[in-house]
Amino acid sequence: MSEIDLSPLKPAIQSFVPLGRSGLLPALHAAQKIYGWLPQEVAAEVGKSLRVPLADVHGVIEFYSLFYNEPVGRKIIRVCTDPACGLKGADGLLERLCRHHNVEPGETTPDLTLTIEPSPCLGLCEQAPAVWTMDDGQWMIGDGVMESHRPPSAVYGLIRELTANCGNGTTTLEKYGEYAAYKKALTMTPDEVIAETDKASGLVGRGGAAFPTGIKWGSAAKIQSDQKYIVCNADESEPGTFKDRVLLLDDPHRTIEGMCIAAYAIGADKGYIYIRGEYPYIVPVLENALDEARAAGYLGKHFDIEIRVGAGAYICGEETALFESLEGKRGFPRVKPPFPTTSGLFGKPTVINNVETLCNLPLIISKGSAEYRKLGTEMSPGPKLFCVSGDVEKPGLYEVPFGVTLRELLNLSGGVANGKELKAVLFGGAAGAFATSEHLDVKLTFEDLRAVGLPLGSGVVMVFDETRELRDVLKRLGKFFAHESCGKCYPCQMGTQRQMEILDRLAAGDFREGDSACLQDVGWTMTDASLCGLGQTAGSAVLSAMKAFPELFVER
Amino acid sequence: MAITLFMDGKEITAEENHTLLEAARENGIDIPTICFHEATTANALCRICMVEVEGMRTLQPACIVRAANQMKVQTRSERVIRARRTILEMLASTMDLSESSEIQKMMSEYGADVNRFPDAHRRESEVKDDNPMYVRDYSKCLLCWRCVQVCADDVQYTFAINFSGRGFETQIATFYDRAIPETSCVLCGQCVAVCPTGALKPKREFLLEQGMTPQQIGVLNSGRKKRK
Question: CA A231, CA A471: separation in Å to the nearest integer?
């Protein structure tokens, strides 16, 4: 083993030492920035400094895709190969890049200058095919032709409430204006703020699970505790989803103000923004916004916020897995109960909300719930963001009131690209379900979608035209879940693998008797018996495809 | 305090705070388990003890869900049997169950087809024979987590093992896969004692299976002993 100079490590991880185990991910990020990967001696030193058992340090490094326990190139090119990018030639791009640099996908050049990897969804679906390059700590975002330090925002729609400040670069505090809604909230009692958020506004979570925000807040508020937390879930990783990226990059203060309101409502004095590791370009934007908010006196006295960066694990978007990750552990979801509102981060009452959910709060409080309800429907009030990608003329982030139909949304985005007919729409992301042209007049609300068995999820609308091979889409979804299963519970750990294997075969034209029955058993077992939401939805798209397109599963 | 609930239509009583698994066992109702062990924190990983609880959207793990008054539980409904059978079939296609007699018994009870997934990728690995006390054959490991738990804060506080990989590729591992003597392992044997599948095995038992005689093993060991 070659000698490794540990002297730059100690100062780099110094500030994380007092955090103990919770400082493990930040310390490993800092260490990897120095060495490019995490050699044994470095991992051991981090473990000793933070007092984390070495086997656990190794377990954490092994869990997260963006931590490397063997040498990688100083430059790493990651090409997204998930469905939206797959439609736009991601496979060919990956192959060309590899051929050009004479390296196999997932491999590193012998001189350790370059690694090229296929990657799960990078949250850049409207710019497909997406490529994320890290070069000696500097990032570039592109599509294989053009590269920039910051992805452009394509924001459209019928209304601009949540996205009022999106589409023109980052909105500074000066441009955002004072936190008027937060100031107004401070003139109300916490109970009044919760009541306004609860039934009055009808706000439900926008991360995918659609849990009523007010109920969550109410149960955390009524618990007596020396410490409570607000966590902003910015681990946006659902294939097809990129709304939180745009909201945070273009208008960070809306999320921060939302967190301030939430903190006041439940009595929390500490907040975390957990952002996925694939969004490094948002971190300095957020840091700057937090500094502005501190200087203006919104943060720092009664409530402050810390940013934590994930390291490549879709499962960490699951709330309890996210807590585990914040605590410096492998991102295994916990059994529930206890629920986060009673025992969440560090065992304390915690409210965890998605970015878009938090962005609704300044609207609700400043307008008042009655005015807020003028948008949307009775059961699904307010504005909603849809991430439109795939075969449409104008992919992008669309803000509309709840209640527009799928047809209206597709018309807004210019319709199916190149004048083709619609074959299918993947709704709600990889964990979602397929819609067909039969569903064009379904209103995009929780209640209308539920009635036809479609999940709203995180607002993904991924469009496939008549020429697309859906078996290829299913294969990519299967690969995604097998790659992202944490491995904790058996149905998902083995089910995602078996599902992927069968979908791979079907995509290759190798059909066997019993494939459908196997996919049904595996899919329903994952749905019915998995420990967390990932496993419970890992078979969802496949099961919906079996219903909508049964011909895909039998020999042509 | 005793409460009343219904299991498979039968009215039973159970202690409040007891899990559905405890309630079932106290009343002679069989719910199978794999990862569950009295000495370790129940993590509800294997999902073989799933039961149907009226009013719940998904099946519930009997090892951790508490019995509640008037709860209606089905331990052998169609949904339950489908999940158990499929999990068993996936296990059979993943790992070496040759020394897991209990699971083999379950497989026949639930009519699980060992060849349900014929060309499936299996978790296979070389036997790790790197210390004088036990061998590790992770081809037989079904990831019940018991060894990791007893090594950590459930029993021994040694923290010699954790996991490598993720998802299907998860494996029990030491720090950077170092040999056991290079880790914090104190050879307490707790992990071997709780392993349900023969993945962890005392070295002596392993050597006997390899065809060595007790005398030959004695010779092997005598070189290591230093008595004064």
Answer: 38
pLDDT for A143: 87
Question: What's the confidence (pLDDT) of residue B218?
Answer: 85
| Mean pLDDT per 10-residue section of chain B, whose length is 228 residues | 95 95 97 96 97 97 97 98 98 97 97 95 96 96 98 97 98 98 97 97 95 88 60
The one-letter amino acid code at B123 reads R
What count of CB pairs under 8 Å joins A to B? 148
B32 vs B13: CA distance, rounded Å: 20
Asked if domains B2-76 and B134-222 share a fold, the reply is no
Q: Domain coordinates of chain A in residue numbers? A: 9-63, 75-148, 159-372, 383-465, 470-553
- What is the bridge-based pairing of β-strands A270-275 and A229-234? parallel
Do B45 and A58 lie within an 8 Å CB cutoff?
Answer: no
For residue B45, list chain A residues with Cβ-Cβ distance below 8 A: 488-490, 531
Query: How many angstroms away from the CA of A65 is the closest CA of chain B?
Result: 9
The CATH number fitting domain A75-148, selected from 3.40.50.720, 3.40.30.10, 3.40.50.80, 3.40.47.10:
3.40.30.10
CB neighbour class for A170 (10 Å; exposed up to 12, middle 13-18, buried from 19) = buried
B90 touches chain A (CB under 8 A): yes
Q: Which CATH number fits domain B134-222: 1.25.40.10, 3.30.70.20, 3.40.50.300, 3.90.550.10?
A: 3.30.70.20
What confidence score (pLDDT) does residue B228 get?
56
Predicted pLDDT of residue A284: 97
Chain A interface residues (partner B, CB cutoff 8 A): 40, 43-44, 53-59, 62-63, 69, 313, 330, 335, 482-491, 493-498, 501, 518, 521-522, 524-525, 527-531, 536
Please confirm whether the linkage preceding A338 is cis (ω < 30° from 0): yes
What integer pLDDT is reported at residue A144 of this predicted model? 82
Report CA-CA distances (Å) from A135 to A78, A114, A132, A140, A347. Answer: 11, 9, 10, 8, 38
B121 Cβ under 8 Å from any chain A Cβ: yes
Tens digit of each residue's pLDDT (9 = 90 or more) over A409-440: 999 999 999 999 999 999 999 999 999 999 99
CATH code linked to domain A383-465? 3.10.20.600
Q: Which CATH number fits domain B2-76: 3.40.50.300, 3.10.20.740, 3.40.50.80, 1.10.3720.10?
A: 3.10.20.740
Q: Which of residues 4-33 of B touch A (CB under 8 A)?
A: none
Write down the mean pLDDT value for chain A.
96
Whether the per-residue pLDDT at A1 is higher than 80: the answer is no
CB of A213 within 8 A of CB of A199? Answer: no
Q: How many CB atoms lie within 10 A of CB A521?
A: 22
CATH 3.30.450.180 fits A159-372, yes or no: no
- Dihedral angle sign, alpha carbons of residues A487, A490, A494, A496: negative
**To the nearest whole angstrom, how far is the Cα of A492 from the nearest Cα of chain B?**
8
Strand B72-74 to strand B50-53: parallel, antiparallel, or no bridges (unpaired)? antiparallel
pLDDT at A146 over 90: no
Average pLDDT over residues A81-97: 97
| Inter-chain touch B168–A62, beta carbons under 8 Å | no
CATH architecture assigned to A470-553:
Up-down Bundle (1.20)
pLDDT at A145: 84
- Percent helix, strand and coil across chain A, each to the nearest 5: 45, 15, 40
**Residues in chain B within 8 Å Cβ distance of A328:** none
Give the HSE-up count for residue A368: Cα atoms under 13 Å, Cβ half-sphere.
2
Alpha-helical segments (H) within A386-435: 406-412
